[in-house]
Amino acid sequence: MTMLQIENLRTEFETPRGTVTAVNGVDLHIDNGEIVGLVGESGSGKSVLAQSVMRLVEDPGEITADELLFKGEPLLEKSEAEMTTIRGNEISMVFQDPMNSLNPTITVGEQIAETVRLHQDIGESISLPAEMKRKIIGASKASESWRRAIEMLESVQIPHPESRATDYPHEFSGGMRQRAMIAIALSCEPDLLIADEPTTALDVTIQAQILEELHSILEVFDTSILLITHDLAVVAETCDRVNVMYAGEMVERATTRELFSNPQHPYTQALLASTPQVETAVEELEPIPGTVPEPIDIPYACHFAPRCPEAKEECFEVDPAFRRVGSEDHEAACIRRDPVDGEVIENE
Amino acid sequence: MSETDMTDVGVEGTDRNSNEDPLLQADGLKKYFDQSDGMLDRLLGPASKVKAVDGVDFELGRQETVAVVGESGCGKSTLGKTLLNLHDPTGGEVRLDGTEIGGLSDKEMLPYRKEIQMIFQDPLASLNPRQTVGDIIKAPLEVHGIGEDDAERTERVRSLLDRVGLSPDYLERYPHQFSGGQQQRIGIARALALEPRVLIADEPVSALDVSVQAQILNLLNTFQEEFGLSILFITHDLSVVRYIADRVLVMYLGEIVEAAPVDELFENPKHPYTQSLLSSVPRIDPKERSDRITLRGVVPSPMDPPSGCRFHTRCPVVIPPDEWPGTEEAFRFAFRFRNQLLSGEIDVENIETHLEATTGRVTTESVADEVIADAYPGSPENLPGEKRDAIESAALALAKGNDEEAASIVTEAFPSPCERRMPTEHRHASDHAVRCHRLDPSAPGEPRRIGADDA
Amino acid sequence: MKKYIAKRVLNALFVVWLVATVVFFGLRAIPGGPVRTMLGAEATEEAVNRMRAELGLDQPLYVQYVEWMIDLMTFDLGQSLTSGEQISVMMASAVPRTLSIALIGVVVGLGIALPTGIISATRKGQRSDYVATVAAFLGLSMPAFFIGILLALVFGVWWGVLPIVGYAPLQEDGIVEWFRRILLPGISVGVPYAAVVMRMTRSSLLEVLDAEYMRTAKAKGVGRTTRLYKHAMQNALIPVVTVAGIQIALVLVGSVTVELVFGIQGIGRLLVDAILDRNYPVTQAVILLVASIMVFMNLSVDIIYTFLDPRIRYGDEAS
Amino acid sequence: MSNDHTTAGRSDSDALDPDERERIARRYRDESPVESTENRGVYRRIRDQILSDKKAIFGATMVLLFVFTAMFAPMIAPYEQDETFGINQEPNSYSEGDYTGNGEIDRVWHVLGTDSFGHDLFTRIVFGARISLLVALTTVAFAFTVGTAIGLIAGYYGGLIDELLMRYVDFQWAFPSIILAAGLIAFLGGLGVTNVVIAIGVAFIDDFARLVRGEVLSIREEEYVLAARAIGTSDRRIMTKEILPNAVAPIIVQMTLMIPLAIIAEAALSFLGLGVKPTTPTWGLLLAEGRQYINQAWWISVFPGLAIMVVVLAFNMFGDSLRDAFDVKQSEVSEK
């Protein structure tokens, strides 16, 4: 079954300098129990895409889409109140910076317990006075939600969860904070977890632990995961399928194995060629010339054309449609690629 | 100057027989930071010190690129700044081409700054937002009185911009008008304006996207050849190290634990920390993946680093003492128990509330059992008898609130040579040095088992 | 946290000592000496010397200093030069008046500032924000004594519902009369205070509402009101408390001028009269008192911090 | 493994060479991406932002009007500042008498009425602007000069100097500005403009010192200052070229916000009778006088009060817009 189905999603911001099209007609789909990777450099729009799914984009952001279906239901047609019941419950999110993403004045345990109370019918009041009382004098350690919070901390491998739950975020180390974030996100056993650069701010040894954590989540909670990162190796190790984004557009998608063994889009190829790797001593890296364009009114068709070694004049004029370029649903949006079986997928 | 308990054999350059002096050399370099803040703090208690860099030796040869890797907080960045006298070294020596420059005042240091320059992690933050690119690159020329007049200096700036791949017409622009990669090029142009012989690069590409990162790395490679630069490259990113470095130093808690040529280090890492660091790096190619060595335990505070080998509290292959009666694995479990107890990670109160909630009754014995279940991986059954007793009595002492007694029981029962003595430097090969008791040359033939009495 | 509070208390004591010392030496450093200035140029040498002896000014400086410190610790502030009254007695009558005004001022100020600040921040850019912002600007631009005069004019002179002169002690005249007399002065000092605190509340809350953890709360599905009060408020209040504490100074300064408007014999009047009469013992006593109140306020702010900011409560200020 | 892929796909024979690609890319944009971001530096942006802010325009206009009034007071005021007419005349009333001394009865219009000495209120208020402006500018200039110097040195060098400064600032913090000023007046022993300027000026030093020290402390930690040290820049050059230019914005904002505070402080001191000499025309003294006649002549206190309010409001609004334009935080500068 399809967990998330996105077609032609656009997120635009009206600014004095012009319209910023952060996400420009993107398709994406995630099946049940999959870890799907979304790779891109800064400015590719990957974080905005994630926030658009949760409808967390702040003013003046405008989201439009032909389809934004979550478990078959259109998210864009939900009211804000309906979204509130979905967020943190059915779809939840982990952010890049675990220090600033946790509230410094609320204990970690309470930040988890709160989510449980909000979305699960455990008979604890979530009225404002009740919540304020919990905040000021602390939540009852005997309550169901607190018990669940401790279980969650335990399941993300935080030692001594009972006492750790009463700590404030600043008393946690970076890796533990990110685990706490994951605990919050998983506390209601969401169907979809969106992890936006969850390991970027962490050391490699901690990153390894967190990525392992994500894998075990998949097994224990049966949650689909959208993993957003700029790190190709992280995707390669973690994900089932990969989507590559560049300057607001999706350029290539395939299963992880297929994508890394047979990258087709010139951007994906160039990205791989410019990435240094630990396992092999490379003599020369091939950087991509130029810089990522600012996503303001980009006038040419293929956004990668000005930096593309294979560009020809047509590339600036013709919108590149997705085409099958290999096995296992491998598709790329590049007019310089001959489609396999002549199959071109129109995206308009 | 170097510490008495350390060998004075430095980790040497690529070619030990070379008759040339290394260009930049550090001996027992130390930098401690005073944590107290103001008079009142000093009144209220003794100052605590962060030992950011604690006795580092290394050499940087001519036209060599040496990378310093380590996780955040290991002191690698402080090392770079201390070499440049941007921090006053607390101890040790720094020699530039044989001349001692450690601890020179800003004035005394001035002539040497022409020789040794730095580029920074955050390209935008390292450029003054109120100055034009021209002003920024011209500043070193002005400070060192290079060039006859302003026109000549401007001409030099234009050619520098051109060399780092920026249009000379960008002279009048402000830093925020450039992309991250272009900003880093400006930073490089500034550093190269003085035509230095040594460049200290502190995470120069960490803030950049991969495609741009490769541009900068290639630029540095080109300049190394053109100017004959020696580069000290500080980074946390092992893949970048593999690409750029000739030699690698691995840092942990202010000390260098392993030093080797780049391919040697990546293919044949010796120190358990290096091994676990390398195993943690994600890989694109599935064939290259190996089993991860996950580190347990918390990173100790640099204010109070562990005795002996600083890595012993987290080391997956910590050494049992000679007289240890059981298996190595059993020892490691016991040692882990010990370290958790000593670092205060075992929270008795918490265990009591947990017992109260689950079973309803709390006795010292039940708490002690729970302490063991909590902090001892597996069961202490396979420990030799007296050692098992030690675990049990320590747990009991802890349950009774006698923390100190518990601590002395476990320290007594589970000593390790690793905590007693600082590992000396062992040369695995002429250019591969490791500080680990497991590879200690003083136990020939049987490097995996070293007696405690040789401490 | 203990260390933090110990540090703050020590610092406060140090500042009070410093103020006392500076006042002591400042007084003696007055060009020509205080007695000569007090008695005027025509006074005879004999009269001056007699006065100096009376005040103990003929003793060696260190003896005077030690005595002054001992007097302070025993709350013996000396006598007024003009009336001969014990200064501590004068203070005992003046302080409750000023504190009553200040109390009403702070209550009124916070009562206005916090709700408007919150409304203004949560409805940024809307009409209510606009009105509140303009009102805050007006409040910021009117000195307390002008507000006092306007209020006296409207409620006392034109409307005649409230008295505009004098004070009624709480114990003697009861709470109603006390309140009737203290209300207008209180509002006068409260309005500028409200304006400052409101602006800080607004900007601080706006900043917090933009924080990443607020996005986390939204992503968790926390409703709008709970987000505001449970997640944002405590963080937003940290800088507000600083401003609200420091700006007690504004209320005290306001009281000094407003006492003149409403003919109340508070410490402001005491100070002004003392300065004009060159009544040095009273001047120094009042200055010392005000400084001590301020130091105490700052200390209170520091202690309130420990409740608001867990980073201080659990002892690592540095991070 | 990745290197093989760059040449995958089509052969490069019909691909554009890089120069040509750049040429085509340029056709699609009017300027290079770098040029499209604001090119003219911060000052133009700030000017534009201020010009688009109604609050700023109002503030600036009123400030200019105030300065103009103060400068040309003798020309704007209808009468001499010490001329006396009928006492406590209502606004929009007339005094009749021989004021020119030519033996004829003159009919004199008082747009805002007269005070208890018979001075024309409008005339007094116009002349009062001079004292306000004078005191405001000199006190802020004084406090700025001394405070910035102290803050810069303490912030940059730290250590003992800083420790001493901070104790001094703590000390001054214990005094509400007017109380400190009143204490200084008592110390200086006399009324008059000079003493008022010294008293208020000293009382404001700590605001600048604290602000500048705070700015220096944070700017000193910036990487570009480290970079300047790495090339061997001297302390003096670092302070003047690297640190101060980056602290200018909050300092300017603080100055514009201190001016109205100085105006209020002067008015308050005069109101208390601790300011300028009683015959001088100032807004504070008029208010104090009006207080006594509040039952008979409301206008004596209301109009000078409004004058203070309008001028202070103007400076506050202008300063606030500057702060927005410079993007300075509310908590960075102090307003009390």
Q: Biggest interface between protein chains, with counts per chain? A: C-D, 60 and 48 residues
If strands are numbered along the chain, what order do they take across the biggest sheet of chain A?
7-8-9-3-10-11-13-12-14
Number of distinct helices of chain C? 14
Q: What's the helix-strand series of chain C?
A: HHHHHHHHHHHHHH
Roughly what is the average pLDDT of chain C, rounded to an integer?
A: 86
Indicate the structural class of chain A. alpha/beta
pLDDT average of chain A, as an integer?
Answer: 88
Radius of gyration of chain A: 21 Å
Please name the fourth-level CATH homologous superfamily of the largest domain in chain A: P-loop containing nucleotide triphosphate hydrolases
CATH topological fold name of the largest domain in chain A:
Rossmann fold
Series of secondary-structure elements of chain A, N-terminal to C-terminal: EEEHEEEHEHHHHHHEHEHEEHHHEEE
- By CATH, the architecture of the largest domain in chain A is named 3-Layer(aba) Sandwich
Instruction: Using the CA coordinates, give the radius of gyration of chain C.
Output: 24 Å
Largest sheet of chain A: 9 strands, mixed
Please give the count of helices of chain A: 13
Beta-strand residue fraction of chain A: 15-25%
The low-confidence parts of chain A are: none
Quick rundown:
The complex is a heterotetramer of chains A (348), B (455), C (319) and D (336). With 348 residues, chain A is of the alpha/beta class. Chain A is 33% helix and 24% strand.
Commentary on this structure:
The complex is a heterotetramer of chains A (348), B (455), C (319) and D (336). Chain A has 348 residues and is an alpha/beta fold. Chain A has 13 helices and 14 strands. Chain A has helices at 46-53, 80-86, 98-101, 108-119, 128-137, 144-155, 161-164, 174-186, 204-221, 232-238, 256-261, 266-274, 313-317, and strands at 2-15, 18-31, 35-39, 61-64, 67-70, 73-74, 91-94, 192-196, 224-229, 241-246, 249-255, 322-326, 330-333, 344-345. The radius of gyration of chain A is 21 Å and the shape is globular. The two termini of chain A are 24 Å apart. Chain B folds into two domains: 11-37 and 48-280, Rossmann fold; 328-415, no CATH class. Chain B contains 16 helices and twelve strands. In chain B, strand 11 and strand 12 form a beta hairpin. Chain B has 455 residues and is α/β, with parallel strands linked by helices. In chain B, the strands form two sheets. In chain B, strands 6-7-8-3-9-10-12-11 form an eight-stranded mixed β-sheet, with helices on both faces. In chain B, strands 2-1-4-5 form a four-stranded antiparallel β-sheet. The longest helix of chain B is centred in the middle third of the chain and has 18 residues, at 210-227. Chain B has helices at residues 38-44, 76-83, 106-113, 133-143, 150-163, 180-192, 210-227, 238-244, 262-267, 272-280, 328-342, 348-358, 364-375, 385-400, 403-413, 417-420, and strands at 24-34, 49-60, 65-69, 91-96, 99-100, 116-119, 198-202, 230-235, 247-252, 255-261, 425-429, 432-435. The two termini of chain C are 14 Å apart. Chain C has helices at residues 2-28, 34-39, 45-55, 61-73, 87-122, 127-141, 144-158, 170-209, 212-220, 224-246, 248-261, 267-276, 280-308, 310-313. By secondary structure, chain C is mostly helical. Chain C is globular and about 85 Å long. In chain C, helix 12 runs antiparallel to helix 13. Chain C has 14 helices and no strands. Helix content of chain C is 79%, strand content 0%. Chain D has 336 residues and is mainly α. Chain D has one domain: MetI-like (MetI-like fold), CATH 1.10.3720. Chain D contains 13 helices and two strands. Chain D has helices at 18-27, 33-36, 42-51, 54-71, 73-76, 121-157, 159-173, 177-188, 193-220, 223-230, 235-272, 283-292, 299-326, and strands at 93-97, 106-110. Mean pLDDT of chain D is 83; it is low at 1-11 and 30-39.
